[in-house]
What we know:
4 strands, alpha+beta, 209 residues, 5 helices, four-stranded mixed sheet
Amino acid sequence: MAHAQASDSIPVAVDSPKGDSQLHHADPQAAGGEFEYKSPGMALSLSLLSTLVPMVAGTIMVSQAHKLQTSLGRTGVEYAGVAGLALGLSFGPSIGYAYSGAHFRGWGMGLLRLAGIGAGAFAIYAGVALSICGEGEDCSNREDGGGLIVLGAVSLIALAVSAVYDIATAPRAARRANEQHGLTNLSLVPVPIPGRSSTSPGLALVGQF
């Protein structure tokens, strides 16, 4: 494998305007101080896993709470599951943006989603409470809670769409961060490395600076 020099430079094949390539050493930090190259694939994986793992765990905890014998008790397990669902849906998709350096965009949208989840859940809860009429109660003057239920459901659906959008665009955030620091179209390609008696296979970071 191609090895870095003492200055942490990396062998880079740079595409020239004429279409040919040259292999030389370039320092990725030189273009942006302490900036490190952000992998679009890593940004996507972080957002996807940070969303799916807590949501799957939360779903299992909520659905199986009555079967779990823990010190938290059934209610405690259900609350923990709901918290996992809320955190996964709100902040999970933002992890890829945070990895790419877009902290304000990532965490800000996560906070908005978390607030929206609370508001939507409360609207559904209030709507259901208004719609329920106990046995023997006079429900003739009871307000219809159907509107609140629909409003809460639409809000939660919109938040889910927002989460999917952030996951899908996480790679773009990483590429944008690289472009802002002068690193574009980077990829690893195999190259031969000359040795004392023969050449050995290695990797080079190919891109445009």
